[in-house]
Amino acid sequence: MAQQEQCAPSDAWARVKGRLRAELGEDVFASWFRGIEVEQVDGEVVHLTVATRFLRNWLRSHYYDFVLRLARAEWPKVERVEFKVRQPHFGTEAPKEPPRPRRSPEPPAMAEPAPLPLPLRTGYGGFEGSPLDPRLSFVSFMVGTSNRLAYAAAQEVAGAFSAPQPLFNPLFVHGNVGLGKTHLLHAIAWDVKQRKPEAQVLYLTAERFMSGFVQALRARDALAFKEKLRRIDILLIDDMEFLQGPTIQQEFCHTLNSLIDGGRQVVVAADRAPTQLDKLDMRMRSRLGGGLVAEIGVMDYELRHKILEKRATEACSETRGLSISDSVIAFLSERLTESGRELEGAVHRLRASFQLTDQPVTLETAEQIVRDLMRGAEPRRVRIDDILRTVSKHYGVNRGDLLSGRRNRSIVRPRQIGMYLAKLLTSRSLPEIGRRFGNRDHTTVLHAIRKIEQLMNDDNQLREEIELLKRLLRE
Are 137 and 78 in a shared domain? Predict the structure, then answer.
């Protein structure tokens, strides 16, 4: 009987998750809801557990009412949903060691690379390729809207490289610097070697290919060089835009044709689409564009946040005492928009600052440390339209709801915060702010401002959120 009672909540929660998937779609469900588990249903409260503090806070502020509504379909008496983190950021074993000075010459990371395989240098028949980074795998690649096609195509190529006639051949991946092209090429190579260790895999940069070919010409060994390349099972060429010289291009085109016609897989990465590689001749551009061309676009906010959260979690787990708050991650996600390398560099800087100064990572320190990474962050005058857009995005509510007469708590609080920010950051009068927030009376605006000021005195999290919004609006 006890077993049945224990199973019933999980069965009901499975049905709730099914409705979440149906109503929100697979992408949103996979990002936020797949890992949620039900701990217990205690009277009027459903206790749910999640993996991280960020996920807990995000669900509370963006999906609380939605989850509560669906939960009531299974438990009609439920009045509240509680989100709880399954595992804390730091293990309970940390206090066992006495604190050590941060400036100790003994770097803690030196003994920790054991789980990763050693860097692998691909090659065939004595021809050495460029080394593969063991950190660059499919598992560590963060997927978002901008890179989903390229990621799926790379996985398909890795899984079917030994097919008689590869489906996507060549696979051409292009995008700006730092968006993950090299990561995908390394991931393909690692995956193929794991599936079939005897596979002849060669990963080369265009520069290394040119260097190898020039050396072969000087040694009068060009024929052997070309024959070795044409017996490769899968050839991966990075930075194709740097391939120069008519002779080298001609030989590479012959090699490309020979591999593709022989059913061998070719994967190429460049910063532009094949048709835009002006330094390549028309035949090569045509052949490179004859397979699947997959662009990796600019990362959106969600993907940047996902990358920063992962890198911050790794840094915190490796550096005792380091804590990078959700507000800092959200701030960096908003301001750093160029590349994944930029995001990783920001986390490295925050970690180094903490190790060298023993000062906690706050929004102020984060802003100072990564200021040079921020593009186009010129100060500007804040408008009420900016406040409405930023608040609605941050809290996941529609602008129309902020201006409406709806009184749901999930809408009232962001609306009050917006009014508070409008008074603080603009020169508008209370009546004008009221008009811009749905034709409200100036007394309503005054009440909202006083309410937020009162809450900020007692709620550190709210104070931190508003500080974050102020910074985003001012820059």
Answer: no
Q: What is residue 184's predicted lDDT score, i.e. its pLDDT?
A: 94
Q: Tokens representing 301?
A: 């906010």
* Pair of tokens at residue 264: 């061998």
Q: Could you tell me if residue 336 is inside a domain?
A: yes
Percentage of the chain exceeding pLDDT 70: 83
> What string of H, E and C letters represents the secondary structure of 214-234?
HHHHHCCCHHHHHHHHCCCCE
| CB distance 161 to 257 below 8 Å | no
DSSP H helices in 94-180:
148-159
* pLDDT tens, residue by residue, 315-349: 898 888 898 888 888 888 888 877 888 898 889 99
Q: Find the domain containing 140 and state its range.
A: 120-296
Residues 433 and 316 in one domain: no
Confidence of residue 111 (pLDDT cuts 50, 70, 90): very low
Q: What is the pLDDT of residues 87-106, one digit of tens each?
A: 543 333 333 333 333 333 33
Residue 294, H or E segment = strand 292-296
| Phi, psi dihedral angles at 19 (to 5 degrees) | -70, -35
Q: What is the pLDDT of residues 204-243, one digit of tens each?
A: 888 877 877 777 777 776 676 767 777 788 889 898 888 8
Domain check: are 340 and 311 in the same one?
yes
Q: Return all residues near 335 (Cβ < 8 A) that are at least 6 apart.
A: 370, 374, 377, 472, 475
Please give the residue that has the higher pLDDT: either 182 or 43.
182
User: Does residue 8 form part of some domain?
Assistant: yes
Q: How far apart are CA 405 and CA 410, in angstroms?
A: 13
Report the mean per-residue pLDDT for the chain.
Answer: 79
Each residue's pLDDT tens digit, 38-62 = 888 887 888 898 877 767 777 776 7
What is residue 175's three-state secondary structure? strand
Long-range pairs of 243-249 with CB within 8 A, sequence gap ≥ 24:
243/206, 243/209, 243/210, 243/279, 243/280, 244/210, 244/279, 245/210, 246/281, 248/209, 248/210, 248/213, 248/214, 249/280, 249/281, 249/284
| Structural domain includes residue 105 | no
- Give the count of domains, the chain: 4
Residue 113 belongs to some domain of the structure: no
Q: Which single residue is written with the structure tokens 């009232």?
A: 412
Assess contact for 456 and 420: CB atoms under 8 A. Answer: no
Q: Can you read off the two tokens belonging to residue 277?
A: 């590689």
